[in-house]
Amino acid sequence: MTITQIQEQIIEEFSAFTDWMDKYEYLIELGKNLPVIDEKSKTEQHLIKGCQSRVWIDAEYIDGKIIYKADSDAIITKGIISLLISVMSGQEPNEIINADLFFIDKIGLHENLSPTRANGLLAMIKQMKLYALAFESVQKK
Amino acid sequence: MIDAINVRKDFPILSATVHGKPLIYLDNAATTQKPECVIQTIDELYRTSNANIHRGVHFLSEQCTQKYETARETVRKFINAEKTSEIVFTAGTTSSINLVAASFGERFVASGDEIIISEMEHHSNIVSWQLLCERKGARLKVIPFDDNGILLINLLDSLITERTKIIAVTHASNVLGTINPVKEIIAKAHSHNIPVLIDGAQAAPHGNVDVRDLDCDFYAFSGHKIYAPTGIGVLYGKEKLLEQMPPYQGGGDMISTVTFDKTTYAQLPLKFEAGTQNFIDAIALGSAIDYINKTGRQNIVEYEQKLLGYATQKLSEIDGLKIYGKADQKVAIVSFLLNDIHHLDTGMILDKTGIAVRTGTLCTEPLLSHFNIRGLVRASFSFYNTFDEIDILCENLKKISLMFK
Questions:
Q1: What is the pLDDT of residue B139?
Q2: Which of B139, B230, B232, B252 allows an S-S link to B281, with CB 3.0 to 4.6 Å?
Q3: What are the chain A neighbours of B375 within 8 Å (beta carbons)?
Q4: Below-50 pLDDT ranges, chain B
Q5: Are residues B284 and B307 in the same domain?
Q6: Any catalytic annotation for residue B37?
Q7: Residues of B with CB below 8 A from A71's CB?
């Protein structure tokens, strides 16, 4: 599926929730189910600045596609990362760099997070796109 | 006894709803809400009386100056200082502490000297002194606290040396709620001729402050934590010390005469009030203090202590909830963690139930290190909070606990 198609699917899933508690329960569930990452990957280098909770993101480049792995000490944050991963992991660098992540706004995450936390979310996206830029430049060489 | 239901009518924001739920505001240690009379004071001043203070000869300026100086007198009485010359208006507790660290430090602290603070200080009462230490080559020493959040002041004797130049401690912890035995600390320090600064940010809202009874040398607090606007605060300093300290900032209002060769400074307290002061908010601080006095400080203390007792009991009953700060003498602050749920998760969900609490490091990273934790959830109460609100907080915490099971 393309990045756009996956995002539409997420929006569809979230449209079933009538209140915020349900959304959070779902995010908690996603957070718990996010595959654990290697403790060795939880380094300063992979730590994202600008989050109230700690977030680590690592990425691998396999057969022209980027595979992201991430973790956080806060479960809801982890749920949000899980959504970002489902949208961007397994895509080509070029697709990721140019991705318009409209689902964040549509499912109410952006408007409902305070600026400090929104910065955290933006910092996560920025980091994921930076990986894509780095892998793309490797590819061009 | 305070009737919170009635008191709430004085605070317009308390009837707000957030995320479709009635607002339950339990972030009072960060800032308090403002009563109608304070909001009206600001509104009226801008509509009818706004003019820059002190140097103007015209009607509005003189009227505004008079109100500003009346507010200073109101503050003097509020903390029972001897003279208004000992009341310096600042931007808040942080700027009061920075003023002392910079000015007292400039005059009295040299390389090799020592400054004593405590392990439970807010970053404001740590970093200001660290900056001074770096500038002067001085050393910071720390009074530790035990796992209940009680300062180990019996260790003070071993920390004081002949190089100790000042002791700076908080009157009440913004995280643990502990009310420290500052009078005892001050007496001990004075027996070694060491002056003491008290950070009163969390104590001023919750009880009587009597700087003459405490005999502290400096007392710092913020307006916005005692129902006044943001951007106004107070530094009390003993005249004898303030006289010896050099000006902190240069500019208008703090001078006597200026020539390119030599400038002489204004008398206290104006020596420390450079530039146009935040006179509107200072006057509104006066209104806030009038409101507190009208409500009755003893009434406030008694009611808030009941809220604290009830909250502590109810929160303790929640399975897996751990309270940090178990001193006998506390202001109405309860910090906690629920099972191993991240403080941010708890705070985000409480927010959606209409409850405002603070989460994170609470500007006290060294305090958190004591407990080896990275953050806390803090509920802090005011006399406009109700017992029902505590019940709703507890119900929601139980729900959150289940969500994460």
A1: 98
A2: B232
A3: 52
A4: none
A5: no
A6: no
A7: none
For B264, other C-beta atoms within 10 Å of its C-beta total 9
Search chain B and give the residue with CA nearest A51.
B344
What angle is formed at CA B216 by the lines to CA B213 and CA B218, rounded to 5 degrees? 135
Evaluate the CA torsion angle B391, B6, B92, B239 in order and state its sign: negative
Residues B200 and B322 in one domain: no
Which residues form the domain of B99? 39-293
Q: Which of B325, B319, B320 is nearest to B380 (CA)?
A: B325
The count of structural domains within chain B is 2
Q: Answer yes or no: do B194 and B280 share one domain.
A: yes
Q: Are residues B391 and B362 in the same domain?
A: yes
Is the whole-model pTM more than 0.90? Answer: yes
* A21–B349 C-beta distance less than 8 A: yes
Tell me the ipTM for this assembly: 0.88
CB contact under 8 A, B342 and A53: yes
B115 and B221 together in one domain:
yes
Q: Which domains are delineated in chain A?
A: 3-140 (3.90.1010.10)
Interface contact flag, B344 A74, Cβ < 8 Å = yes
pLDDT tens-digit readout, A106-131: 998 876 555 556 567 888 898 999 99
B14 and B134 share a domain? no
Report the chain A residue with the minimal C-alpha distance to residue B343: A74
How far is Cα B172 from Cα B200, in angstroms, rounded to an integer? 7
